Amino acid sequence: MAKVVHNDVLDAALGAVKTGATRMVALAAEPASYAAANSGALADAAMTSADFTIGEGVTSGRRLSVAAKSDVAITASGTATHVALLDAAGSRLLYVTTCPAQPLVSASTVSFGGWDIEIGDPA
Prior knowledge:
Layout: H1 7-20, E1 23-27, H2 34-39, E2 43-46, E3 52-56, E4 62-66, E5 69-73, E6 78-87, E7 92-104, E8 109-112, E9 115-119
Antiparallel strand pairs: 1-2, 1-6, 3-4, 4-9, 5-8, 6-7
């Protein structure tokens, strides 16, 4: 039996991130909760819905493109290994991904490259 999902269903999932994420943070470890991500942030960039674009997936499904952020203040030293999108108003950890390990030094700046979240069509 074939499996089908309408783009609106996938867009709704990605839209929860687009409309909810107000911060992008660099972390030294995978956070288990919003509190862990909030307290463990090495660098913190403000986000708005304009920083996200929903479109076609690379191979199938839908994709949420996250805008790059330049010259973000580093607030704590450590080696960034994860990036998380947070909803500060709702105290929600919306999305976590890995990143190439990068040493960060407090009182300096870092740039986040653009990246994507993709949900593929069901197989």
